Amino acid sequence: MTISTTTPGRAAVRPPQGWLRFAAPQQFYPLAGQLAPWFAALAALLAAAGLYIGFFVAPTDFQQGEVYRVIFIHVPAAWMSMFIYLIMAFWSAVGLVMNTRLSFIVSQALAPTGAMFCFVALWTGALWGKPTWGAYWVWDARLTSQLLLLFLYFGFIALTRAIEDPRRADRAGAVLALVGAVNVPIIYFSVQWWNTLHQGASVSIAKAPSMATIMLVGMLLMALAAWMYSIAVALWRVRALILERERHTEWVGAVLEAEAKAAGGVR
Amino acid sequence: MKARNKRLLLVGGGVALLVAAVALVLSAFQQNLVFFHTPSEVVAGKAPVGRTFRIGGMVEAGSIKREADGLTVNFAITDTAKVIPVSYRGTLPDLFQEGKGAVVQGTLGPDGRFVASEVLAKHDENYMPVEAQYALDQAHEAARTVQQ
Protein backbone atom coordinates (compact mmCIF):
# COMPACT_ATOMS: atom_id res chain seq x y z
CA MET A 1 0.00 0.00 0.00
CA THR A 2 1.30 3.43 -0.84
CA ILE A 3 0.46 6.52 1.14
CA SER A 4 0.31 9.78 -0.74
CA THR A 5 2.48 12.29 1.06
CA THR A 6 1.27 15.43 -0.69
CA THR A 7 -2.24 16.72 -0.55
CA PRO A 8 -3.35 19.33 -3.09
CA GLY A 9 -3.91 22.69 -1.42
CA ARG A 10 -2.00 21.73 1.75
CA ALA A 11 1.45 21.70 0.19
CA ALA A 12 2.83 23.99 2.92
CA VAL A 13 2.31 21.34 5.66
CA ARG A 14 5.14 18.85 5.40
CA PRO A 15 4.30 15.39 6.80
CA PRO A 16 6.52 14.60 9.80
CA GLN A 17 9.72 12.73 9.01
CA GLY A 18 11.59 10.08 11.00
CA TRP A 19 10.02 8.61 14.12
CA LEU A 20 7.64 11.57 14.46
CA ARG A 21 5.55 10.09 11.66
CA PHE A 22 4.33 7.50 14.22
CA ALA A 23 2.36 10.32 15.84
CA ALA A 24 -0.23 9.60 13.14
CA PRO A 25 -2.67 6.92 14.37
CA GLN A 26 -2.58 5.25 10.97
CA GLN A 27 1.20 4.79 11.24
CA PHE A 28 1.22 3.86 14.90
CA TYR A 29 -1.44 1.14 14.57
CA PRO A 30 0.80 -1.44 12.77
CA LEU A 31 3.88 -0.49 14.85
CA ALA A 32 1.97 -1.09 18.10
CA GLY A 33 0.75 -4.42 16.76
CA GLN A 34 4.32 -5.51 16.02
CA LEU A 35 5.79 -4.37 19.36
CA ALA A 36 3.10 -5.51 21.80
CA PRO A 37 3.76 -9.31 21.65
CA TRP A 38 7.48 -8.75 22.38
CA PHE A 39 6.73 -6.71 25.48
CA ALA A 40 4.17 -9.30 26.57
CA ALA A 41 6.74 -12.10 26.18
CA LEU A 42 9.34 -10.13 28.15
CA ALA A 43 6.76 -9.47 30.87
CA ALA A 44 6.00 -13.19 31.18
CA LEU A 45 9.71 -14.14 31.37
CA LEU A 46 10.58 -11.43 33.91
CA ALA A 47 7.54 -12.22 36.06
CA ALA A 48 8.39 -15.93 36.06
CA ALA A 49 11.99 -15.19 37.13
CA GLY A 50 10.89 -12.61 39.70
CA LEU A 51 8.22 -14.83 41.25
CA TYR A 52 10.61 -17.77 41.39
CA ILE A 53 13.25 -15.72 43.21
CA GLY A 54 10.60 -14.11 45.40
CA PHE A 55 8.93 -17.27 46.58
CA PHE A 56 11.63 -19.96 46.37
CA VAL A 57 15.08 -18.33 46.48
CA ALA A 58 14.75 -15.24 48.70
CA PRO A 59 15.23 -16.03 52.40
CA THR A 60 12.74 -15.43 55.20
CA ASP A 61 12.85 -11.95 56.72
CA PHE A 62 14.33 -11.62 60.24
CA GLN A 63 11.38 -9.68 61.65
CA GLN A 64 8.32 -10.30 59.52
CA GLY A 65 8.87 -13.94 58.59
CA GLU A 66 7.15 -15.04 55.37
CA VAL A 67 4.57 -12.25 55.19
CA TYR A 68 7.22 -9.84 53.86
CA ARG A 69 7.01 -11.66 50.50
CA VAL A 70 4.10 -9.38 49.64
CA ILE A 71 6.73 -6.80 48.59
CA PHE A 72 7.35 -8.75 45.37
CA ILE A 73 3.82 -7.78 44.29
CA HIS A 74 3.02 -4.76 46.44
CA VAL A 75 6.04 -2.54 45.74
CA PRO A 76 6.15 -3.00 41.93
CA ALA A 77 2.38 -2.43 41.76
CA ALA A 78 2.63 0.74 43.86
CA TRP A 79 5.55 2.09 41.82
CA MET A 80 3.75 1.32 38.58
CA SER A 81 0.50 2.98 39.71
CA MET A 82 2.37 6.23 40.43
CA PHE A 83 4.55 6.09 37.33
CA ILE A 84 1.68 5.38 34.94
CA TYR A 85 -0.16 8.43 36.25
CA LEU A 86 2.87 10.61 35.56
CA ILE A 87 3.14 9.20 32.03
CA MET A 88 -0.58 9.89 31.51
CA ALA A 89 -0.07 13.48 32.68
CA PHE A 90 2.94 13.84 30.35
CA TRP A 91 1.04 12.66 27.27
CA SER A 92 -1.95 14.79 28.29
CA ALA A 93 0.29 17.86 28.39
CA VAL A 94 1.80 16.95 25.01
CA GLY A 95 -1.70 16.48 23.60
CA LEU A 96 -2.95 19.82 24.93
CA VAL A 97 0.08 21.72 23.61
CA MET A 98 0.76 19.96 20.31
CA ASN A 99 -2.85 18.98 19.49
CA THR A 100 -1.83 15.40 18.71
CA ARG A 101 -4.69 12.92 18.86
CA LEU A 102 -2.45 9.95 19.57
CA SER A 103 -1.16 11.50 22.82
CA PHE A 104 -4.67 11.56 24.28
CA ILE A 105 -5.28 8.01 23.08
CA VAL A 106 -2.09 6.81 24.80
CA SER A 107 -3.00 8.42 28.12
CA GLN A 108 -6.50 6.92 27.97
CA ALA A 109 -5.07 3.52 27.08
CA LEU A 110 -2.84 3.60 30.17
CA ALA A 111 -5.55 4.54 32.68
CA PRO A 112 -7.16 1.10 33.28
CA THR A 113 -3.75 -0.52 33.81
CA GLY A 114 -2.76 2.20 36.28
CA ALA A 115 -6.03 1.78 38.15
CA MET A 116 -5.47 -1.98 38.29
CA PHE A 117 -1.97 -1.61 39.76
CA CYS A 118 -3.24 1.00 42.20
CA PHE A 119 -5.93 -1.39 43.41
CA VAL A 120 -3.43 -4.26 43.69
CA ALA A 121 -1.10 -2.07 45.79
CA LEU A 122 -3.92 -1.09 48.17
CA TRP A 123 -5.28 -4.62 48.39
CA THR A 124 -1.97 -6.42 49.02
CA GLY A 125 -1.04 -3.64 51.44
CA ALA A 126 -4.20 -4.28 53.45
CA LEU A 127 -3.53 -8.04 53.53
CA TRP A 128 0.03 -7.31 54.75
CA GLY A 129 -1.06 -4.64 57.21
CA LYS A 130 -3.32 -6.88 59.27
CA PRO A 131 -0.62 -9.35 60.44
CA THR A 132 2.17 -6.74 60.55
CA TRP A 133 0.63 -3.54 61.91
CA GLY A 134 -2.47 -5.05 63.41
CA ALA A 135 -4.88 -3.19 61.10
CA TYR A 136 -6.07 -3.60 57.49
CA TRP A 137 -6.35 0.11 57.00
CA VAL A 138 -5.26 3.29 58.76
CA TRP A 139 -5.81 6.85 57.60
CA ASP A 140 -2.17 7.86 57.43
CA ALA A 141 -0.85 10.20 54.73
CA ARG A 142 0.63 7.44 52.52
CA LEU A 143 -2.46 5.23 52.46
CA THR A 144 -4.88 8.12 52.07
CA SER A 145 -2.99 9.72 49.17
CA GLN A 146 -2.73 6.33 47.43
CA LEU A 147 -6.50 5.87 47.81
CA LEU A 148 -6.93 9.33 46.28
CA LEU A 149 -4.85 8.13 43.32
CA LEU A 150 -7.29 5.25 42.77
CA PHE A 151 -10.20 7.73 42.76
CA LEU A 152 -8.29 9.95 40.32
CA TYR A 153 -7.91 6.98 37.97
CA PHE A 154 -11.63 6.17 38.29
CA GLY A 155 -12.47 9.84 37.74
CA PHE A 156 -10.28 10.02 34.63
CA ILE A 157 -11.78 6.86 33.14
CA ALA A 158 -15.34 7.95 33.93
CA LEU A 159 -14.83 11.49 32.59
CA THR A 160 -13.27 10.44 29.28
CA ARG A 161 -15.99 7.81 28.74
CA ALA A 162 -18.86 10.09 29.77
CA ILE A 163 -18.30 12.82 27.15
CA GLU A 164 -19.60 11.91 23.70
CA ASP A 165 -17.42 14.22 21.59
CA PRO A 166 -13.93 12.66 21.60
CA ARG A 167 -12.14 16.03 21.26
CA ARG A 168 -13.89 17.45 24.33
CA ALA A 169 -13.44 14.16 26.21
CA ASP A 170 -9.70 14.24 25.43
CA ARG A 171 -9.30 17.77 26.73
CA ALA A 172 -11.34 17.28 29.89
CA GLY A 173 -9.45 14.08 30.72
CA ALA A 174 -6.09 15.72 30.03
CA VAL A 175 -6.82 18.57 32.44
CA LEU A 176 -7.85 16.09 35.14
CA ALA A 177 -4.69 14.03 34.54
CA LEU A 178 -2.51 17.14 34.91
CA VAL A 179 -4.28 18.33 38.04
CA GLY A 180 -4.13 14.88 39.63
CA ALA A 181 -0.41 14.51 38.89
CA VAL A 182 0.26 16.82 41.86
CA ASN A 183 -0.82 13.92 44.07
CA VAL A 184 1.98 11.61 42.89
CA PRO A 185 4.92 13.39 44.61
CA ILE A 186 2.70 13.71 47.67
CA ILE A 187 2.28 9.92 47.77
CA TYR A 188 5.99 9.36 47.25
CA PHE A 189 7.28 11.84 49.82
CA SER A 190 4.46 11.42 52.36
CA VAL A 191 6.57 9.02 54.43
CA GLN A 192 9.31 11.67 54.69
CA TRP A 193 7.18 14.78 55.18
CA TRP A 194 4.86 13.49 57.88
CA ASN A 195 4.79 10.87 60.60
CA THR A 196 3.12 7.92 58.93
CA LEU A 197 2.51 4.33 59.96
CA HIS A 198 3.76 3.22 56.57
CA GLN A 199 7.54 2.71 56.66
CA GLY A 200 9.94 4.80 54.59
CA ALA A 201 11.37 3.75 51.22
CA SER A 202 13.71 0.73 51.29
CA VAL A 203 14.94 1.50 47.79
CA SER A 204 15.59 5.03 46.51
CA ILE A 205 18.08 6.92 44.39
CA ALA A 206 19.38 8.89 47.35
CA LYS A 207 20.72 6.01 49.48
CA ALA A 208 21.87 2.39 49.37
CA PRO A 209 18.93 -0.04 49.55
CA SER A 210 18.20 -1.26 53.09
CA MET A 211 17.40 -4.72 51.86
CA ALA A 212 19.23 -8.00 51.26
CA THR A 213 20.49 -8.23 47.65
CA ILE A 214 18.53 -11.32 46.59
CA MET A 215 15.27 -9.80 47.90
CA LEU A 216 16.07 -6.64 45.96
CA VAL A 217 16.78 -8.59 42.76
CA GLY A 218 13.43 -10.36 43.00
CA MET A 219 11.61 -7.09 43.58
CA LEU A 220 13.35 -5.29 40.70
CA LEU A 221 12.62 -8.18 38.31
CA MET A 222 8.95 -7.91 39.26
CA ALA A 223 9.08 -4.14 38.75
CA LEU A 224 10.53 -4.64 35.24
CA ALA A 225 7.85 -7.24 34.52
CA ALA A 226 5.21 -4.70 35.56
CA TRP A 227 6.72 -2.18 33.11
CA MET A 228 6.71 -4.63 30.21
CA TYR A 229 3.18 -5.77 31.00
CA SER A 230 1.95 -2.18 31.14
CA ILE A 231 3.56 -1.31 27.80
CA ALA A 232 2.14 -4.43 26.10
CA VAL A 233 -1.39 -3.95 27.41
CA ALA A 234 -1.36 -0.21 26.67
CA LEU A 235 -0.22 -0.83 23.08
CA TRP A 236 -3.06 -3.28 22.49
CA ARG A 237 -5.53 -0.87 24.03
CA VAL A 238 -4.17 1.97 21.86
CA ARG A 239 -4.87 -0.19 18.78
CA ALA A 240 -8.46 -0.79 19.89
CA LEU A 241 -9.00 2.91 20.59
CA ILE A 242 -7.51 3.90 17.20
CA LEU A 243 -9.85 1.51 15.38
CA GLU A 244 -12.82 2.82 17.32
CA ARG A 245 -12.04 6.46 16.60
CA GLU A 246 -11.01 6.08 12.97
CA ARG A 247 -13.70 3.56 12.08
CA HIS A 248 -15.14 5.82 9.39
CA THR A 249 -11.83 6.19 7.54
CA GLU A 250 -10.75 4.26 4.49
CA TRP A 251 -7.60 2.78 5.99
CA VAL A 252 -9.46 1.19 8.92
CA GLY A 253 -11.88 -0.33 6.45
CA ALA A 254 -8.93 -1.79 4.54
CA VAL A 255 -7.31 -3.12 7.74
CA LEU A 256 -10.53 -4.77 8.92
CA GLU A 257 -11.10 -6.32 5.50
CA ALA A 258 -7.55 -7.71 5.42
CA GLU A 259 -7.93 -9.13 8.94
CA ALA A 260 -11.26 -10.73 8.07
CA LYS A 261 -9.68 -12.28 4.98
CA ALA A 262 -6.73 -13.61 7.01
CA ALA A 263 -9.09 -15.10 9.60
CA GLY A 264 -11.17 -16.71 6.79
CA GLY A 265 -8.03 -18.20 5.26
CA VAL A 266 -7.09 -19.89 8.53
CA ARG A 267 -10.45 -21.56 8.75
CA MET B 1 3.80 33.97 19.28
CA LYS B 2 2.68 30.71 17.75
CA ALA B 3 -0.53 29.15 19.02
CA ARG B 4 1.39 26.09 20.14
CA ASN B 5 3.74 28.14 22.35
CA LYS B 6 0.76 29.97 23.81
CA ARG B 7 -0.83 26.67 24.79
CA LEU B 8 2.48 25.47 26.28
CA LEU B 9 2.62 28.63 28.40
CA LEU B 10 -0.99 28.14 29.46
CA VAL B 11 -0.54 24.51 30.47
CA GLY B 12 2.81 25.16 32.18
CA GLY B 13 1.49 28.21 34.03
CA GLY B 14 -1.64 26.36 35.11
CA VAL B 15 0.34 23.45 36.52
CA ALA B 16 2.77 25.81 38.31
CA LEU B 17 -0.13 27.71 39.94
CA LEU B 18 -1.75 24.44 40.99
CA VAL B 19 1.48 23.15 42.55
CA ALA B 20 1.87 26.42 44.48
CA ALA B 21 -1.75 26.21 45.72
CA VAL B 22 -1.36 22.60 46.86
CA ALA B 23 1.95 23.38 48.59
CA LEU B 24 0.26 26.21 50.54
CA VAL B 25 -2.70 24.01 51.51
CA LEU B 26 -0.42 21.19 52.65
CA SER B 27 1.76 23.47 54.76
CA ALA B 28 -1.39 24.94 56.34
CA PHE B 29 -2.67 21.46 57.22
CA GLN B 30 0.74 20.23 58.35
CA GLN B 31 -0.54 19.45 61.86
CA ASN B 32 -3.61 17.53 60.70
CA LEU B 33 -1.64 15.30 58.34
CA VAL B 34 0.49 13.91 61.14
CA PHE B 35 -0.49 10.35 61.94
CA PHE B 36 1.06 10.37 65.40
CA HIS B 37 2.81 12.62 67.91
CA THR B 38 6.19 11.87 69.46
CA PRO B 39 6.57 11.47 73.26
CA SER B 40 8.59 14.72 73.35
CA GLU B 41 5.68 16.62 71.75
CA VAL B 42 3.28 15.09 74.26
CA VAL B 43 5.47 16.12 77.24
CA ALA B 44 5.82 19.63 75.76
CA GLY B 45 2.00 19.84 75.71
CA LYS B 46 1.69 19.95 71.91
CA ALA B 47 -0.66 16.95 71.79
CA PRO B 48 -4.45 17.45 71.88
CA VAL B 49 -5.93 17.41 75.39
CA GLY B 50 -9.14 15.55 76.20
CA ARG B 51 -9.52 13.80 72.87
CA THR B 52 -8.14 10.69 71.19
CA PHE B 53 -4.76 10.94 69.49
CA ARG B 54 -1.80 8.72 68.66
CA ILE B 55 1.73 8.50 70.02
CA GLY B 56 4.48 6.88 68.00
CA GLY B 57 7.89 5.74 69.17
CA MET B 58 9.91 2.80 70.39
CA VAL B 59 8.69 0.37 73.00
CA GLU B 60 11.22 0.87 75.76
CA ALA B 61 13.39 -2.19 76.43
CA GLY B 62 12.35 -4.09 79.56
CA SER B 63 9.17 -2.06 80.01
CA ILE B 64 6.50 -4.61 78.94
CA LYS B 65 4.63 -5.94 82.01
CA ARG B 66 1.50 -8.07 81.84
CA GLU B 67 -1.03 -7.83 84.64
CA ALA B 68 -2.55 -10.83 86.41
CA ASP B 69 -5.69 -10.84 84.21
CA GLY B 70 -3.47 -11.74 81.23
CA LEU B 71 -5.07 -9.13 78.98
CA THR B 72 -3.87 -5.80 80.31
CA VAL B 73 -0.38 -4.81 79.26
CA ASN B 74 1.67 -1.94 80.62
CA PHE B 75 4.65 -0.62 78.73
CA ALA B 76 6.46 2.61 78.02
CA ILE B 77 6.87 4.33 74.66
CA THR B 78 9.88 6.55 74.03
CA ASP B 79 11.65 8.62 71.38
CA THR B 80 14.88 8.22 73.43
CA ALA B 81 14.37 11.76 74.86
CA LYS B 82 11.06 11.42 76.74
CA VAL B 83 9.11 8.40 78.02
CA ILE B 84 5.31 7.99 78.22
CA PRO B 85 3.82 5.09 80.23
CA VAL B 86 1.00 3.27 78.39
CA SER B 87 -1.76 0.88 79.50
CA TYR B 88 -3.55 -1.29 76.98
CA ARG B 89 -6.15 -4.04 77.27
CA GLY B 90 -6.43 -6.34 74.26
CA THR B 91 -4.42 -8.35 71.76
CA LEU B 92 -1.14 -7.04 70.44
CA PRO B 93 0.12 -7.37 66.83
CA ASP B 94 2.78 -10.01 66.18
CA LEU B 95 5.53 -7.50 65.51
CA PHE B 96 4.96 -5.67 68.80
CA GLN B 97 8.29 -6.09 70.63
CA GLU B 98 10.54 -4.24 73.03
CA GLY B 99 12.98 -2.00 71.19
CA LYS B 100 10.73 -1.88 68.08
CA GLY B 101 8.46 0.86 66.77
CA ALA B 102 4.80 1.09 67.78
CA VAL B 103 1.90 3.52 67.43
CA VAL B 104 -0.68 3.66 70.22
CA GLN B 105 -4.07 5.35 69.98
CA GLY B 106 -5.99 6.55 73.01
CA THR B 107 -6.23 9.38 75.53
CA LEU B 108 -3.80 10.87 78.00
CA GLY B 109 -5.00 10.53 81.61
CA PRO B 110 -4.56 13.26 84.22
CA ASP B 111 -1.80 11.19 85.86
CA GLY B 112 0.29 11.31 82.66
CA ARG B 113 -0.48 7.67 81.81
CA PHE B 114 -1.70 7.06 78.26
CA VAL B 115 -4.66 4.70 78.07
CA ALA B 116 -4.54 3.05 74.65
CA SER B 117 -7.55 1.63 72.82
CA GLU B 118 -5.51 0.42 69.85
CA VAL B 119 -1.88 -0.62 69.41
CA LEU B 120 -0.23 -0.83 65.99
CA ALA B 121 3.27 -2.11 65.28
CA LYS B 122 5.29 0.30 63.15
CA HIS B 123 7.59 -1.57 60.88
CA ASP B 124 10.90 -0.20 59.59
CA GLU B 125 12.17 -0.35 56.02
CA ASN B 126 14.92 -2.92 56.66
CA TYR B 127 14.62 -6.35 55.11
CA MET B 128 17.23 -9.04 55.70
CA PRO B 129 17.53 -12.79 56.13
CA VAL B 130 17.34 -14.40 59.59
CA GLU B 131 21.01 -15.48 59.32
CA ALA B 132 22.13 -11.90 58.69
CA GLN B 133 20.37 -10.70 61.85
CA TYR B 134 21.99 -13.58 63.79
CA ALA B 135 25.42 -12.56 62.47
CA LEU B 136 24.74 -8.93 63.44
CA ASP B 137 23.75 -9.95 66.98
CA GLN B 138 26.90 -12.06 67.28
CA ALA B 139 29.03 -9.11 66.18
CA HIS B 140 27.37 -6.81 68.75
CA GLU B 141 27.87 -9.43 71.44
CA ALA B 142 31.56 -9.82 70.52
CA ALA B 143 32.06 -6.04 70.56
CA ARG B 144 30.50 -5.81 74.02
CA THR B 145 32.69 -8.65 75.38
CA VAL B 146 35.80 -6.93 74.04
CA GLN B 147 34.84 -3.65 75.74
CA GLN B 148 34.38 -5.37 79.07
Automatic annotation (TrEMBL), chain A:
It is a multi-pass membrane protein. It comes from the Bacteria. InterPro entries: Cyt_c_assembly, Cyt_c_biogenesis_CcmC, Cyt_c_biogenesis_CcsA/CcmC. Residues 38-198 form the Cytochrome c assembly protein domain. GO terms for cellular component: plasma membrane. One of its GO terms (molecular function) is heme binding. GO terms for biological process: cytochrome complex assembly. The keyword Thylakoid does not apply. The chain crosses the membrane at residues 35-57, 77-97, 109-129, 141-160, 172-191, 211-236. It is found in: Cell inner membrane; Membrane. Keywords: Cell inner membrane, Cell membrane, Cytochrome c-type biogenesis, Membrane, Transmembrane, Transmembrane helix, Transport. The keyword Cell inner membrane applies. Signal peptide: none annotated. It holds the Pfam family Cytochrom_C_asm. Belongs to the CcmC/CycZ/HelC family. Required for the export of heme to the periplasm for the biogenesis of c-type cytochromes. This is Heme exporter protein C. It comes from Pseudothauera rhizosphaerae. The lineage of its organism: Bacteria, Pseudomonadati, Pseudomonadota, Betaproteobacteria, Rhodocyclales. The gene is ccmC.
TrEMBL record, chain B:
It is found in: Cell inner membrane; Cell membrane. Signal peptide: none annotated. The keyword Transcription does not apply. GO terms for molecular function: heme binding; metal ion binding. Its main location: membrane. PANTHER family: CYTOCHROME C-TYPE BIOGENESIS PROTEIN CCME HOMOLOG, MITOCHONDRIAL (PTHR34128:SF2). This is Cytochrome c-type biogenesis protein CcmE.
